[in-house]
From TrEMBL:
CDD domains: KH-II_YlqC-like (cd22533)
Family: Belongs to the KhpA RNA-binding protein family.
Main location: cytoplasm
Known role: A probable RNA chaperone. Forms a complex with KhpB which binds to cellular RNA and controls its expression. Plays a role in peptidoglycan (PG) homeostasis and cell length regulation.
Keywords, alphabetical: Cell shape, Cell wall biogenesis/degradation, Chaperone, Cytoplasm, RNA-binding
Protein's recorded name: RNA-binding protein KhpA
Highest taxon, organism lineage: Bacteria
Location(s) in or outside the cell: Cytoplasm
């Protein structure tokens, strides 16, 4: 799942070498934290959060095979 997120995000940003995906696993949830260059945060969020919502939709659909709830967070 990390490679899927990384592939999507790296295609959207100007500084793909600064993209970091961190996976935090807990008992009932799985959280992916996306960290990008400060100049690229707006590109990942998009106007009114549309790009972020699209990324989350793809990840949630791909993660439907897991028994855990999956979350995607974007950090500056």
């Amino acid at each position: 799942m990390t490679s899927l997120i990384e592939t999507i995000v790296k295609a959207l940003v100007d500084y793909p070498e600064d993209v970091m995906i961190q996976e935090n696993s807990e008992e009932t949830k799985l959280t992916y934290v996306i960290k990008v260059h400060p100049e690229d945060v707006g590109k990942i969020i998009g106007k009114q959060g549309r790009v972020a919502k699209a990324i989350r939709t793809v990840v949630y659909t791909a993660a439907s095979q897991y028994d855990k709830k999956v979350y995607v967070e974007i950090h500056e």
